[in-house]
Design goal:
The protein is an alpha/beta fold and about 400 residues long. It is built from 14 helices and 15 strands. Bound molecules: pyridoxal-5'-phosphate. Pyridoxal-5'-phosphate binds next to helix 3.
Length: about 400
């Protein structure tokens, strides 16, 4: 990370771990003369060994058997394979997705619905936690087996879901559970997540390269391949494996599994930062009556994530001001096709639109220090002070 950057955006992409870089460099060396992991000759066997070593490392992180790991191009493809592949297997007759899922789950569910699947949305409460009673009611009112998609931890708020309870009631009702554990991996132990039928992982959230991930598939026959034309990944995902990316994923997964305590130890730093931001926002906005809030603070949260919303402030303007000071954070809004949209997660939680438009997400990681937090807080104070001045519009024109 360049010295002039304070990177507080680990949930978007974590920095590449040195061990992942080394593993990828050695894989590149090993493959310099060629080698397809499906070839039987010695060059192919070298590539195969790299993939299988990484598979064992990813399995150790996800507490599963190596042959349950299906390498994909990332978390998005893993979610898509879990949903479309489980529906195609015929083991479930309908789909239930939580309202706060990642877009790769929600948009796949929408596409499945357009193709004729029966889809319902599981609401979340004001803290972003899935409504278990609503789920139990849904499952008991329609006896057809369902695939229930519930992320274990939310990317925007860090809110953790009651996965083991949900797995219990869905299994009792004869359904299947898919858990998007992309943000959970490397931040919390996997214990309850490993009870799900399918689990998504993404390499670049644990310090591996972008463009690689995995779907963990428990048992045989539950997921139909969506890419066909090759026997790779035990016929569950055709296509020559991304050997170099997978090598980096394996190394990152191993360090992430060993390093969970470091991420968990970030909670006090995150909590102190939130207290400081709330106090200074209250002081800066005292006259104007604006308020700041930590979204999802009453629920269990990932130790590294903080979603802070400033009432009546434009998160985009705040982000730009922070960026000018070298501080990288995300906004709680999604930007697509040049249009800033409100976060569907905050909408599902019932956060007031004026507050939601001022939401920023900070996500800390293994390189974050107290100095980084200090620099963020100082830059934020400066930006809020300028934005609170009567002559500065709080919201960008046209928003
Ligand atoms: N699921 C969650 C919760 C995520 O946060 C992300 C990425 O931001 C994804 C899925 C998609 O992963 P990838 O970027 O590897 O496609």
């Amino acid at each position: 990370m360049p010295a002039d950057i304070t990177y507080l955006d680990y949930n978007a992409t974590a920095p590449l771990r040195p061990q992942a870089r080394t593993a990828m460099m050695s894989a590149m060396e090993a493959l310099a003369g060629g080698g397809n992991p499906s070839s039987v000759h010695r060059a192919g066997r070298t590539a195969r060994r790299i993939v299988e070593d990484a598979r064992a490392q990813v399995a150790a992180l996800a507490l599963c058997a190596p042959d349950e790991v299906v390498f994909t191009s990332g978390g998005t493809e893993a979610n898509s394979l879990a949903i479309l592949g489980t529906l195609a297997s015929g083991q479930v007759k309908r789909l239930i997705v939580s309202a706060a899922e990642h877009a790769s789950v929600l948009d796949t569910a929408t596409a499945a619905m357009a193709a004729g699947a029966d889809v319902s949305v599981l609401p979340v409460d004001a803290n972003g936690v899935a409504d278990i009673e609503a789920l139990a009611h849904d499952l008991s009112s329609d006896p057809r087996p369902a695939l229930v998609c519930l992320m274990s931890a939310n990317n925007e708020t860090g809110v953790i879901q009651p996965v083991s309870k949900v797995v219990g009631i869905v299994k009792d009702a004869g359904g299947r559970v898919h858990v998007d554990a992309v943000q959970h991996a490397g931040k919390l132990p996997f214990s309850d997540v490993s009870l799900a039928h399918t689990v998504s992982l993404s390499a670049h959230k644990v310090g591996g390269p972008q463009g690689t991930g995995a779907l963990i598939v428990r048992g045989k026959g539950g997921v139909e391949p969506q890419l066909r034309g090759g026997g790779q990944e035990l016929r569950r995902r055709a296509g020559t494996e991304n050997v170099i990316g997978i090598a980096g994923f394996g190394a990152a997964a191993q360090v992430a599994a060993e390093d969970i305590a470091t991420v968990q130890a970030l909670a006090p730093l995150r909590n102190a930062m939130e207290a400081r931001v709330l106090a200074s926002a209250a002081a800066i906005f005292a006259a104007g009556g604006h308020a700041a809030q930590v979204i999802g603070h009453a629920a269990p949260r990932l130790p590294n994530t903080s979603c802070i919303a400033f009432d009546g402030v434009s998160a985009e303007t705040l982000l730009m001001a922070l960026d000018l000071s070298g501080v990288c954070v995300s906004s709680g809004s999604a930007c697509s096709s040049g249009k800033v949209a409100r976060s569907h997660v905050l909408d599902a939680m019932g956060v007031a639109p004026d507050l939601a438009r001022g939401a920023i997400r900070l996500s800390l990681g293994w390189t974050t220090t107290a100095d980084d937090i200090d620099r963020f807080c100082t830059s934020l104070d400066q930006a809020l002070t300028v934005m609170s001045s009567p002559r500065t519009p709080m919201r960008a024109a046209g928003e």
